[in-house]
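Today's session is about reading a structure prediction critically. Students often jump straight to the picture, but the first step is always the sequence itself: look for stretches that repeat, for charged clusters, for runs of hydrophobic residues. Only then move on to the predicted structure, which in these notes is written as discrete structure tokens rather than atom positions. Here is the chain we will use throughout the hour.
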Amino acid sequence: MGDLLIVMSASFTKYHGLGNDFLVSVDPADLPGDDEVDADFVVAICDRHRGIGADGLLVARTPTRGPAPGGSGVAQAT
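Below is the predicted structure for this chain, in token form.
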């Protein structure tokens, strides 16, 4: 059988420079996972032949608790 195709709606911006490119998602309520973005999702979305194609995914979130000014995370596709 083939690969399972999951269709979802998510907003990304792609930034590139100096040979690297990253997908950026701000307040990603529409990304799979709770506090952590699913690693398999990152690999799939960053695949240059089957996904959008990027070196990784940068995630910026608005804090949900505490005095922290914000949250962020980096997930590499490799």
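Discussion point for the tutorial: The longest strand covers residues 20-26.
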